[in-house]
Amino acid sequence: METLLQKFSDYQEVYTKGTYLFFTKNPIKIKFFGKFFRFETFQDVFGNNLDNALFELVPSDFSGETEMSLTHEFDRTLKPDSFTLTVTEQKEIIIKTKNLRGFRYAAEALKLLFEKNSNGTACLLVSIAHSVSFQVRGVIEGFYGLPWQHADRLDVLHYLGKNRMNTYMYAPKDDEYQRNLWRTLYPEKELAQFEALIETAEKEMIDFYYMISPGNDIDYTQTEEVAVLTNKLQQLIDIGVRNFGLLMDDIDYLLKGNAKKKFASSASAHAYLITQVDNFLKNELEDYCFVVCPTEYDNHQDSSYLEILSEKMPKNIPLFWTGPSTLAAQITTSEIKTMAAAYNRPMIIWDNIPVNDYQKDYELLFLSPYENRSPLLNQEPPQVVGVVSNPMAQWELSKLTIHNMSQFLWNSAGYKTVDSWNKTLAEYLPAKYYKALKIFAQFNPNKYTREVLTLEQQNAIREKDLVFITNQLEQLVEASWKLLEVEDPAFQQTIDPWLKRTKEDLLYWQTIMEGDPDKIQAVKTKLADIPYRIGTDLPAAFVQYWKLTEKTAVTEVIE
Questions:
Q1: Where in the chain is the domain with CATH 3.20.20.80?
Q2: Among 111-120, 317-326, 485-494, which is the least confidently predicted range?
Q3: What fold is seen in the domain 2-130?
Q4: Per annotation, catalytic residue among 44, 75, 219, 250
Q5: Is 250 a catalytic residue?
Q6: What is the tens place of the pLDDT at every residue in 176-198?
Q7: Using CB atoms within 10 A of its CB, is residue 337 exposed (0-12), middle (13-18) or buried (19+)?
């Protein structure tokens, strides 16, 4: 029974005695009754996800013999993406959802119910109910630096769909047409790529958002400027985009010229622009979503800007918040309550984890769990409707934290960091690489959410425990060589420079133990030119702590 419940540990409510229905046929035939909308078929809701060898769905007008029935019903009392699933002794499966994405998640649970045995197939009698913790769950491509490639974005959409997330927001800071050249329409090539992304997003049931950043140089007083902005949005509407974001982050929001004459504050100017864009979207689209990033997006207290902005812009539009700092070490229950009162409207957490675009962070990998976020973020109040992660430029390795975060967003109350992280590592690579991946991740922590050096490593440096430090570095190199065996081109292409760096660090440490300050300085200079660093960087930490700059100091420490 314990193993059985572990199988369904992703879901909030699971009720079963461990009783099964037994069928001699394999696969068993299940008659589908679609009551969610008129003329619903099982192809409508399962799509291409109906690859199960243990059961076969047939339409309601099927005249042959069947063993079970599956009914899908609409339930307006449920939250979007949530579901209930019940298997009765009468061989009925009843799924209730509010939207079709909820059925996709119920179908995942459905597949877990069937087990093949020597005599046929068994189906568990069970009742499952799950209400997702956050309405918006996903990724915002909002970092500085080289944007993702088109293939990366397609992979992002598939990955989000696979991991029960529902939102992708396009907002790369260095897409010229998104920020610096926001007035310029996209060329045909880029539009074609957007169309491909939208098509894939629809198949994966992902909400695609296009975000634009005109705040650096837009003239709020000129109707022609607003028209240029809305014309750009119209181009995206014409290819199927229905969700948008207006980003006013990282701009100089001191008013100048005509804007200073027309508006008493930047908050008033921003609220005016937001309202104009919202009115445009309202006229063009019957159904749309619109979200805004204010210029003050990382406050830990109320402000005049936020008060005026929230009062003057439409109440239904959510605002982004990154937490109490841009790269938030934690988001506590107290902090979110303070800012919810200041925002006075729905909020979406723009979580800058595991992004590595600040200063020289691009030299590092951040491979840590999703942690130090209150499990009560989804309580009402405050009004946090969702969380989106801003990942690293290295999408492939961002998957670790994103996968981990998806478990938190799916069921924040049941999220346990250590267990969830172990699950993430176990699912990312085949089992034979689990240990190596865990070691490598431990040496590349997110420095904004956890201490870079463990207590044992800090003690070893203070106590000059050279054997311990040597063993640590050798262990890391061994793990790196093991990961070089992974047969995944995307993984190898992304991680290779950091795997090679581990060997350089071990050689540096061996040079340090030789005690020659000239050699130490020479190797240190060489390493400084390598744009890839291991997060813990034990040799550098040792040198810095003991200030190994002169021969006498080196000799004293080593001896």
A1: 136-415
A2: 111-120
A3: Chitobiase; domain 2 (3.30.379)
A4: 250
A5: yes
A6: 999 999 999 999 999 999 999 99
A7: middle
